[in-house]
Amino acid sequence: QVQLVESGGGLVQAGGSLRLSCAASGGTFSKYALGWFRQAPGKEREFVAAISWSGLRTIYADSVKGRFTISRENAKNTMYLQMNGPKPEDTAVYYCAATYTSGSYLFNGESSYNYWGQGTQVTVSS
Questions:
Q1: What's the Cα-to-Cα distance from 101 to each of 32, 45, 64, 72, 95, rounded to whole Å?
Q2: 78: closest CA among 23, 10, 121?
Q3: What pLDDT, in 10s, does the model give residues 91-102?
Q4: Closest Cα to residue 37, out of 108, 95, 105, 77?
Q5: SS3 state of residue 90
Q6: Which 3 state secondary structure label does DSSP give 89?
Q7: How many CB atoms lie within 10 A of CB 47?
Q8: How far apart are CA 119 and CA 126, in angstroms?
Q9: What pLDDT shows up at residue 120?
Q10: What separation, in Å, do the N-terminal and C-terminal C-alpha atoms of the chain show?
Q11: Which of the residues in the chain have pLDDT under 50?
Q12: Residue 64, class by beta-carbon neighbours within 10 Å (0-12 exposed, 13-18 middle, 19+ buried)?
């Protein structure tokens, strides 16, 4: 099993930038596929981005493609979400998620992930 802790959230102006981090412990980090999800008040949790265990394969939701970048540093047991040009509609609680995999798989479905962080609030002002 693995424990996940997000950090880096806060208040940012539209057009600025923000980087979220997800630190993992208790597992073999390189063996986990990872993803970011977000949930706004009164909304369903939605997929943001995912990355394979090697970091070579990524996928993004259409709403963030070209603005957000997912990455990972396995030696540091950490995943990142770089948010460039955030918009007010990006305001949400952001969660990191992980699932063990035996290969270079990529998942965008919430049900594919077994482990979740506690979330970090991101607020984008106009």
A1: 6, 23, 25, 16, 19
A2: 23
A3: 999 999 999 988
A4: 95
A5: helix
A6: helix
A7: 20
A8: 23
A9: 97
A10: 40
A11: none
A12: buried
